Known about the structure:
The protein is 80% helix and 0% strand. The chain is mainly alpha-helical.
Amino acid sequence: MLAPMLPSFLLVVLLVELTPGPNMGWLALLSASEGRRAGLAATAGIGLGLAVVAAASALGLAQLAHQSALVFDLLRYAGSAFLLWLAWEAWVGEREVSPSTIYRDGTPAKHFRRGLIINLLNPKAAAFFIVVLPGYIVVNQSITMQTLQLSAAYVASATLIHVVIVLFASQTHGWLTNSAYTGLARKAFAVMLALIALWFFVGTFR
């Protein structure tokens, strides 16, 4: 049985992942300059890093839900605040710790390791799973199954978007690195994220 909140969760994931940022620009630049193989290797590393964080978060959330319903509910309420923070960061264009700070030269194996390590050490990824994801879990159904499904959906969606960026890097690279275009896109996605955060906040307190 699919998680009841999967469609709305995927909407948030798509907005977060489609917001232009360092990871997106790095993948486009890497693919355009060193080829599709390098870009796909980096994408695989990023995907594995997200999967590890997602699995750890899923197991922790399931255990927390059984031990402390109050703390679990507080995490659900904090999800709207985290989404608002993401919206603000997207609006102002603040840079995060990402592979964009790493040199582009290297073998596919090195690009894979770079994508893996950076995403394992990225606190924003863990925060998304720990704070936002609980808001999309129905407590009267299997929490473990829902958490695993939502986590897998996040990793799959993010990886798909990254693969598309790599495959079309020669066309998208110029757009992704154009400050005028990325600035407008960031602000548009920031507004949508803020609206969803407010809707999320109202919904969790009903």
